[in-house]
Amino acid sequence: MEEPDANGYYYHDTFEGSVGQWTAAGPAEVLLSGRTAYKGSESLLVRNRTAAWNGAQRALNPRTFVPGNTYCFSVVASFIEGASSTTFCMKLQYVDGSGTQRYDTIDMKTVGPNQWVHLYNPQYRIPSDATDMYVYVETADDTINFYIDEAIGAVAGTVIEGLEHHHHHH
């Protein structure tokens, strides 16, 4: 099992020069972008989405994120154009004990353009029968380009500062 760092983080993806372990969910493209960032100079851009569920995903190691246990998940998300508002969803995709693919919402929030929204659940319990787990970010009902930054998986109860009113730096 991986040990958390001094902050209680098992992973902390900043997207500075690396996409880390993030990949596209569905027929989309993920790449680094310097157009906007919450922290640092780059974020992860998700583009060429053909359906709302297309997004960005990161596999969770079951030795670290043990099914049945509770963890903290956090990411910030933003979009620049293409809608007057959008609802971002951070979900857990997994296969349950019967072999059925499941999608469980970790957090969801609606936001307007040019601001970062904090998707955050400090007490998310992974279903005890989960296998093949991914944390992913999508939108509820559009295919606009979007950005994520500061993706964190941490010890349950970890306080990660709220980012609700943090606007883009230009």
User: What kind of sheet is the major sheet?
Assistant: 6 strands, antiparallel
- Portion in helices: under 10%
Overall domain count: 1
Instruction: Tell me the strand percentage band.
Output: over 45%
Query: Rg from C-alpha positions?
Result: 15 Å
Extended strand count? 11
Overall geometry: globular
* SS content category: mainly beta
What is the CATH domain class? Mainly Beta
N→C terminal distance: 41 Å
Order of helices and strands: EEEEEEEEEEE
What does this protein structure show overall?
The chain is an all-beta fold. It has a single domain (9-155), classed as Jelly Rolls (Sandwich). The protein is built from no helices and eleven strands. The chain has strands at 9-13, 22-25, 29-33, 43-47, 55-59, 70-78, 86-95, 101-111, 117-125, 131-139, 146-155. Strands 1, 3, 4, 6, 9 and 11 form a six-stranded antiparallel sheet that branches. The model is unreliable at 164-170 (pLDDT under 50).
